[in-house]
Each structure stands twice: as structure tokens, then as C-alpha cells.
């Protein structure tokens, strides 16, 4: 009799819990996606929105995104990562370099003349963080890590040689690029991307170091007169690193099947895709400059040697800084280089 009652109770519990579990599995989830990029930017329209749409489709419409470009949820670009950590936003896309000295091991990919191709380097960046710095972004669920295309100069005065940079006030996106520009004799001014138009129009800066793909979104081609790039057979004079991070508690709260949808759109392949998309959209920014009639000067490999030689101390200083922090700086640099070479061959 006792056993029969137990079975009846168990059966009743399952009967009640069944619909509840099914309801949990079918519930819709709304995710707030926050970034500093403008709603008209290539990053937003060509990369981030399509990613959200793909996730929504693969979830059968059970994941819905609320997109907030241009810091529409409030705060400043340097606060974005902490917004994901603290749940102000569910997912963010940002530059780790906006918080100098915090995500230091990943900075190796921002060192001068390291990056070859953005897709391959993004794969290298993902593997590097997983193997060499797994705690770098431990406060969140990291969905993608990638770099952008080849850095370029856009200025009100023409840049052809290192000497042309002397005394020029140039926007620098991260601390390593700030140091690199200073070595070249420029006066680097650190600022997030959204601050560029105002700084250029007021003459606070005379130019920017940035990727081609973001040029139209902040009207760089309208506010400068000259552009300078390095030849394709020269490694990128700089690239920026990016992270797409999710609030860990929000991720853990998802039903298993929706976690799988997020997982299927995360990781090394997604990172590589983001890198490839940003580099391929460089052509859009380049065309905007050309359509404006601004001359583009390409620094050939022979003339690039001076830029490369002078930037050497940036790497040495970074290695020494890592050593002071208790890491093996030379090993980290060598690992990053070998991973870039590994994925560049595939």
C-alpha cells in the first residue's frame, strides 16, 4: 500500500512537472545587446545584426534580441565589459583596450606589425586566450574574440614618412598604439571611436589611427584630407582586439537547447568570421575615401622598414611589462606569433 501511494505521488508529480518542464523549454528569452558602434556602422549592420538574426532563426524565434548600438543603454564605451559582467546588458561587443592595463595578455595581438590577415589572426587570438590566458575574461561568458583589418592613418596633413608624424596629434585607440605613435614622434590622444568626429572638427586632433571599415561611421573621410596605408606585403602596422561577452548568469539560466544555439554561434569559427567580415568591409571605407577624392598613399615595403624598426621597443617594453606582472612575456609573444603563422597557413 505504501509503495502504491509512493508511485501514485511520483506519477502525480511527473504529471504536474511535465508541462512545467515543457513550458520552461519552450519559453522565449530576450537578450539586450549593447555596443558603442553606431547603428549605421559596418560592424553593426554587416556583422552584429546578422549574427543576432542567425541566433534568433536557429532558436526558432525563442531568443529575441533588443539591439542597443551607440551606447543607448547608457554609460561609456570603457564600461561595456563591466555592463556584461554586472547584467546591465546581456551581451556586449567592445575593445578590451578601452580599459588599459586590465586585459594585458591579450594585448600581444595589438603589437605593431604582428597581424597578417584578420580571419587567421582572430583564430590565433581565440586559441591564445583559451590556452595562455583562460582567466583573462573569467567574469563573463566569452562568445567571440577577434581583430579588425589593417590599421591606417587618416589626417589633415599628408603622412608618407615617420618624419611626417612628428608633432601631429593623432587619435590612438589603445595603450600599445599610443606608445607606438609616441615613438614615431606623434602626440597620441587616447579616445574611444565615438569621440573622433568632435575631436577632428574642433582641431583637438589632426588625424586618427583606425581601421578602414569604421571610416564612414564616424565621418573620418569628411573630416580629413589624406589617408595612408601600408603595402599588402607588410604586416599590419596595428590592429585592435575585440571581445563579444555575455553575462554568465544569463547564459547559465538558458534552457539547454538555447545554450546550444549560443554555443553553435560562438568560439573560434565565429571569431574568425567576425575578423573576416571586418577586414572585408575595409573596402567600403576605402571606397568612401576615394569617392570623396582624398588621396591615398601606400607605404611600400622598403619605406616601411623605418616604421618597423622604430616600433621594436614597443614589443620589448610589453615583454618586460608581462614579466613584471609574473608572466613569461617572451613565451606569450612567441606563442602569439606561432599561432598567427599556424592559422595563416590553413
Textual characterization of the structure:
The protein is of the alpha/beta class. 47% of the residues lie in helices and 16% in strands. It contains 14 helices and eleven strands. The chain has helices spanning 2-26, 42-58, 80-86, 118-132, 175-183, 196-202, 220-223, 248-252, 256-264, 268-280, 282-292, 301-310, 312-324, 329-344; strands at 29-35, 63-68, 91-94, 141-147, 151-155, 169-172, 187-190, 207-211, 226-230, 241-246, 296-299. Helix 5 links the parallel strand 6 (169-172) and strand 7 (187-190). Residues 1-24 have low confidence and may be disordered.
Helix content: 40-55%
Count of alpha and pi helical runs: 14
Nearest-integer average pLDDT: 93
Shape: globular
Strand count = 11
The residue ranges in which pLDDT falls below 50 over 5 or more consecutive positions are 1-24
**SSE-based structural type:** alpha/beta
Percent of residues in beta strands? 15-25%
User: In which order are the strands of the major sheet placed?
Assistant: 7-6-8-5-9-11
N-to-C span: 68 Å
Element pattern in H and E: HEHEHEHEEEHEHEHEEHHHHEHHH
Major sheet size, sense and barrel closure: 6 strands, mixed
Based on CA atoms alone, the radius of gyration comes out at 23 Å
Amino acid at each position: 500500500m505504501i509503495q502504491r501511494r509512493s508511485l501514485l505521488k511520483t506519477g502525480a508529480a511527473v504529471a504536474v512537472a511535465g508541462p512545467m518542464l515543457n513550458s520552461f523549454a519552450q519559453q522565449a528569452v530576450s537578450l539586450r545587446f549593447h555596443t558603442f558602434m553606431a547603428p549605421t556602422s559596418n560592424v553593426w549592420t554587416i556583422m552584429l545584426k546578422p549574427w543576432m538574426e542567425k541566433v534568433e532563426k536557429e532558436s526558432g524565434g525563442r531568443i529575441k534580441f533588443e539591439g542597443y548600438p551607440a551606447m543607448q543603454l547608457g554609460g561609456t564605451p570603457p564600461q561595456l565589459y563591466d555592463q556584461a559582467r554586472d547584467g546591465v546588458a546581456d551581451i556586449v561587443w567592445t575593445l578590451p583596450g578601452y580599459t588599459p592595463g586590465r586585459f594585458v595578455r591579450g594585448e600581444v595581438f595589438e603589437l605593431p606589425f604582428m597581424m597578417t590577415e584578420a580571419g587567421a589572426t582572430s583564430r590565433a587570438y581565440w586559441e591564445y586566450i583559451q590556452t595562455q590566458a583562460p582567466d583573462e575574461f573569467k567574469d563573463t561568458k566569452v562568445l567571440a574574440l577577434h581583430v579588425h583589418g589593417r590599421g591606417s592613418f587618416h589626417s589633415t596633413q599628408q603622412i608618407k614618412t615617420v618624419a611626417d608624424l612628428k608633432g601631429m596629434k593623432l587619435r590612438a585607440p589603445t595603450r600599445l598604439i599610443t606608445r607606438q605613435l609616441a615613438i614615431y614622434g606623434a602626440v597620441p590622444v587616447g579616445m574611444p571611436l565615438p569621440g573622433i568626429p568632435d575631436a577632428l572638427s574642433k582641431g583637438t586632433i589632426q588625424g586618427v589611427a583606425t581601421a578602414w571599415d569604421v571610416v564612414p561611421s564616424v565621418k573620418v573621410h569628411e573630416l580629413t584630407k589624406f589617408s595612408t596605408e601600408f603595402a599588402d606585403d607588410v604586416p599590419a602596422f596595428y590592429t585592435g582586439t575585440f571581445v563579444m561577452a555575455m553575462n554568465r548568469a544569463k547564459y547559465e539560466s538558458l534552457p539547454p537547447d538555447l545554450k546550444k544555439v549560443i554555443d553553435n554561434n560562438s568560439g573560434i569559427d565565429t571569431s574568425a568570421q567576425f575578423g573576416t567580415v571586418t577586414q572585408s568591409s575595409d573596402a567600403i571605407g576605402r571606397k568612401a575615401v576615394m569617392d570623396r577624392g582624398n588621396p591615398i598613399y601606400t607605404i611600400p615595403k622598403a619605406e616601411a622598414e623605418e616604421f618597423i624598426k622604430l616600433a621594436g621597443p614597443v614589443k620589448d617594453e610589453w615583454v618586460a611589462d608581462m614579466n613584471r606582472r609574473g608572466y613569461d612575456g617572451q613565451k606569450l609573444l612567441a606563442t602569439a606569433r606561432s599561432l598567427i603563422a599556424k592559422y595563416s597557413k590553413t
